[in-house]
Amino acid sequence: MKTTRLLLILILCLAPLGLAQTPAAPAAAAPPAAASAALTDQDLKGLSGPDAKARANGDPDGSLTGTTNDITIADPVTDKNPKAKGLTIGDLANQIGQNKIAINFTWTLVCGFLVMFMQAGFAVVETGLCRVKNANHTMMMNFMVYGVGMLAYWLIGFAIQEGGVGAVANLGASPVLSHEYVVTIFGKPWGLWGQGGYFLTHAGSYDVFAMVLFLFQMVFMDTALTIVTGTVAERWKYAAFVVSSFVMGAFIYPLFANWAWGGGWLATLGSSYGLGHGYADFAGSGVVHSVGGITALAMGILIGPRLGKFTRDGKPLAMPGHDLLIVLTGCFILAFGWFGFNPGSTLGASGNGSLRIGSIAVNTMLAGMAGSFGALLYMWLRYGKPDASMTGNGLLAGLVAITAPSGFVNPVCSVIIGLIGGVLVCLSVEFVEKVMRVDDPVGAISVHGANGLWGVISVGLFADGKSNYGGSWNGVDGSVKGLFYGDPGQLVAQLIGCATLIGFVFTFGFVVNWVIDAFMGQRVSAATELAGLDMPEMGALCYPEFEVKTQSVGA
Amino acid sequence: MAIAGLIVTLLGFLISVFSVSVSSSTSGRLIIVLIGLAVSLGGIIGLLNPAYMKNANWRK
Q: Model pTM?
């Protein structure tokens, strides 16, 4: 009898999860519903977990831990209240709901912690690709972009990005962030920015859901900011870096992120104009990487190349970094962190199709592998040697490219996307350096800007319509499908996203930084640059026992 | 020249966005968006960057 009761409880526990994962198939939930009708509070009366004596002897195999005793009971039977209801079906249902959200909170937070650790990867990759005389300065930019960006995002950015996101089912469907500023254009609503959640206290945002969402989104934002520091390394005035990063974390990044992820107009291109499922960017090829890479391009043009990078006839000269060891170690750290970046973007591991996390993680690692192969083979065939730094950049390029489509494509397409990304980063580096003559010491414009755009476009090509995140995406029923799977409208939505990145984000980033340049100057003096930024800007060398050879220019 | 580059870059974005109201067909929208993208890229690569390259430090 006790076994039967436990079975009934188990069925009751699983029924809501089954409903949540397959909302379009109510018939599948019918048998558990019938079974639940047979279960009453009375059936639960006799249930009890291990007694205190048994627990006092320890629980080496874990069989006594996590039992009926651990279910929170609203009206427990005690000596003072022997007629209380005790364990009820309501208690069980509440516990199931709590467990689902606990799983999703834990998943999202742990993935956020992994993404946070990517800051260390970016820091060593960028520093390793710079010269010894600028190592402290480059490291300190990567170190403080975390704090500066977080402050800006906490004060302003989070509210602009997520203030109107509405209920997120995987994180408890709280309505506290439902304040989107919307205007009507062409007869349709266009969400422009969020208006709730300033300081994480405004408009009810002192809320467990908002805290989890803030942590996860904050580390994404910081990733975008740190991309810029790579392009303008070795010549960016530290004070200007602080101001520029603050503005980017408060306004530039959150605005585009709101349009794509916060319920803004890009996300609603599907429901408003029939363009597929609207702009779909699963984990941020566009939102994070392209925003960072395209702002980096704007900064690279504005600040100009390092002294000695180009000859008088515009031919680029190699300026090798000082430590390939930490460059490739940093690439591995980033690849590790990407397992938080992409699978974590389900914002849960239970319910609403979140079990696709395995597929997303595999897609991520496959594309990274393909990207490194693409760059390795390209450089080997073109220059006769397998270039280490470009192979590392190829790995990152594959990861950047798969970030947007990781939740929508199959493993074969992931490899194709990553392989193209690996070759694209090599071609883009050559174009940026030899044609545009923009100096990018770490290749951030190509890794994040070009491949971010490629990732966004690849959703519109390769999304296979097999994903199911609660039965809809961006308010449009069904799964995201690309051009090759029958939905050309999705490709148009993705291209509008690319046009927004290139046309709007670039212009916004350029103008903001042009103003900062006019007021305080963005670039260090030539003397500082030649001496290395460590002493003049930071007051300390990164490697004080090294003999640093400085370079003369114009000779 | 630099300001013209910025204006053209922004114009490309506006062309792409207006595609949703100018045309109701997917192929029509696709063509307009691609034109917008080309205009934006032209603004950056063809106007803004050359304007800054004129005074680049390696020319001095």
A: 0.91
